[in-house]
Amino acid sequence: MYASDGVINKSLGGIGLEEWKHAWLGESSTALGSILFVNFPWVGGISFLLFMAGLTAIPRELYEVGILEGAGPWQRLRRLELPMLRGPLRLVLLMAVIHQVQSFENVLVLTNGGPGFSTLSPALYLYKKSFEYNEFGYASAIGVILFAALLGFTLLLQRTMRTADAPE
User: With 74 labelled, which of 1, 113, 135, 162 sits at a CA distance of 20 to 30 A?
Assistant: First the structure.
């Protein structure tokens, strides 16, 4: 997909955007975005199931009231569905951040942290320190710091979402 003769570059050439072709994983400016797109958290897996469960839990009567009040599709999304999906959104956001911080396999396989250090993630740095350089103590310290940072982020997200959910 990201190769010089891959799907993206061929598609860009096919629609006349030759100047947009890149070495997607070989340039510092596009490598990180390309890897993040591989792990795009809103599209598949458990995130999709959480959103589907949240949408099916919205009572049909609320949709009918929205239609009777003259709400269009965008107004229903903004004023009905998004507020009702606050819980699943919070969970998906939390899981996506934790996954992105802990994930290193795609970065390891696609770029090994390069070009330069532009795609070096904390988890890949931990992996390299422990298994390539045999600095297990240093890698353990990185792991503890990552745990503390993710715990702090989780608590902060819970606190801000709880105050946003509180009635006025």
Answer: 162
